[in-house]
Protein: Sugar kinase
Amino acid sequence: MTVVTLGVHIVDVLARPVESIPAGQDTHLVEQVRITAAGAAAGTAVDLARLGVPVASAGAVGDDELGDFLLMIMARHGVDVSGVVRKSGEQTAASILPIRPDGGRPSFHVPGANLGFALADIDPAQVLGAKVVHLGGMDASWGLHDPAFFALLDQARAGGTIVTMDLLSNMPELMPAAKVFLPHLDYFLPNEEQALMITGAATAEEAAAALLAEGLTGALITLGAAGSLVATGAGATHVPALDVLVVDTTGCGDAYCAGFIAGLLDGRTPVAAAELGTAVAARVAGGLGSDAGLENAHELLSH
Structure:
């Protein structure tokens, strides 16, 4: 496969708009409910497939009905799921997301089988044969905080593979562990809060400089409605967000990563690839769920 996304796989159940949780046994009617493949590996894989990029995903799900659904929906979108292992007796990771009218997304989450995903579950040939390996959610993939996995990434990079990484959470206690991956990456794509926590910097610009000092080719810090900051050895560039009506912010980071990776594979500069990521994220923000608005998304690559 051209891209392997490796890490967190989640089933999202979303409802909108939700202004409050009903008291007692009360019922509130909503406009829309969806169930989607999500997570920093699975969601990015689906978005890449919708962009027309050949992609395989590697991770862990349970041997339950949610796992059946997740594999089915990813395969239906065109993702090779042969690298996703089933963990007997484990629950597939899942989130319930009541989406607020302004697009905000509080969540109820169970991490499930993601916590058991480890190096023994990975086919090294799949990693070594990819043009890009995207690490999704290494802050929550504790079984991969393994020197042997770092060595595999280094071997892949020595063979020409580009390694990118995005995180899953904004939990401060997980940032030090995520930082150990930095020497084994080419591009890191955190959000602003994650970047500040992982570096201890006061601003996104300072964080980007600190991340580049770790040996990265590029640091791309997403800034929500303010767009993103793209920093490479050539300097730092602010890429503005597109003006869209936000329905749901779920999966916008995954969409940005997918667009950026697709742009790199298309031969674009990091800034131009980030602009493509911004366009993909804008489409996702306009609908409900991590793959919303990506019908005919491959057309974005021709712009």
Observations:
- The mean pLDDT is 93.
- The first strand starts at residue 3 and ends at 7.
